[in-house]
Amino acid sequence: MTTARIIDFIKNRRPEGPCLVVDLDVVKNNYHAFRHAMPDSAIYYAVKANPAPEILSLLASQGSSFDCASVAEIQMALDAGATADRISFGNTIKKERDIARAHALGVNLFAVDAHEEVEKVARAAPGARVFCRVLTSGEGAEWPLSRKFGCVPQMAVDVLVYAHQLGLESYGVSFHVGSQMTQVDAWDSALADAKRVFSQLSKQGIHLQMVNMGGGFPTRYLKDIPSAEAYGKAIYAALRKHFGNHIPHTIIEPGRGMVGNAGVIKAEVVLISRKSDNDDARWVFLDIGKFGGLAETMDEAIRYPIRTVHDGGEMEPCVIAGPTCDSADVLYEKNMYPLPLSLTIGDEVLIEGTGAYTTTYSAVAFNGFEPLKAYVI
């Protein structure tokens, strides 16, 4: 959402070129909404969503833990004030030397999803705690995250038994229902799988302690979304349903839901044209596209709210594209986007809900365009 603070910043600072502006007050409010909705779950912010130092420092000061995908992200979390016991190395695909480096920094919680990854952790971080990621369907998510990560539940049992045999602490299981998950009951079947893994390992004398329930919590784009409280109630009901009175330690990993609605991208209309004299489709080219930070428009999965100074006037469906010399740099074409007929070259537009997965997706210098500038206020 575009807050008054963001509007004032853009008005007074007049930053040059496309840029992201993030309001820390919104991030703080989101954190406490999750804290209130799921008071018994530890919050591990997914650093990859937006690793701005100001965001990490704020969350560390509020008591957040951190889900990190690399040694660089681990160092960022430590620099922001987190202690190593509040960091999870949540990537299931790690170089052995990176595992060793993380362990040397004090990190003792690692994700795995294969026997081969367990072997690396056992060699590089002996005695560490591991949790195995289980595949989920991702049905209902706008950005599914399974298939590449995780294994079937029965393999998870075997992987955790193997970890135990190699001297690691088989600590728990994890799953991710898919990013921008708008179905509050999506965690139910995944928790059922987690319980089966718990039960099978218990029969073998290995008692798991933790379920990492991943992220998936959405931010608002064009459609309303359930509240954090609604997710909390549904997830707690599913935990009680499957684990009864023996609910394990739980972790959630909000990323998009923590910072998505805190950011707005200021962009400019570079060109408005048609492909023929009788072409019904108006093409609107912005100074930001897929390679400048809007990669999540791939397959038109994420549709961002776009505000203009002409809102309220007559609208027309448009093709929206970015500025680069690459034919893939088209944001919305299959499902054209309504924009005001009075929109013109040079107009400023605000792209809302862009606090997550924009700066980190921005190319370094594709076509010579600078990476997306970011301001945190």
Automatic annotation (TrEMBL):
Cofactor names: pyridoxal 5'-phosphate
Keyword Lipoprotein on entry: no
One GO cellular component, as annotated: cytoplasm
UniProt KW keywords: Lyase, Pyridoxal phosphate
Active site: C325
Presence of keyword Lyase: yes
Stored InterPro entries: Ala_racemase/Decarboxylase_C (IPR009006), De-COase2_CS (IPR022657), De-COase2_N (IPR022644), De-COase2_pyr-phos_BS (IPR022653), Orn/DAP/Arg_de-COase (IPR000183), Orn_de-COase (IPR002433), PLP-binding_barrel (IPR029066)
Pathway(s) the chain acts in: Amine and polyamine biosynthesis; putrescine biosynthesis via L-ornithine pathway; putrescine from L-ornithine: step 1/1
One record GO biological process: putrescine biosynthetic process from arginine, via ornithine
Orn/DAP/Arg decarboxylase 2 N-terminal domain location: 26-259
Domain of life: Bacteria
GO molecular function: ornithine decarboxylase activity
EC assignment: 4.1.1.17
Pfam families: Orn_Arg_deC_N
Modification N6-(pyridoxal phosphate)lysine, positions: K48
Reaction catalyzed: L-ornithine + H(+) = putrescine + CO2
Protein family (similarity comment): Belongs to the Orn/Lys/Arg decarboxylase class-II family.
Name of this chain's protein: ornithine decarboxylase
Species annotation: Gellertiella hungarica
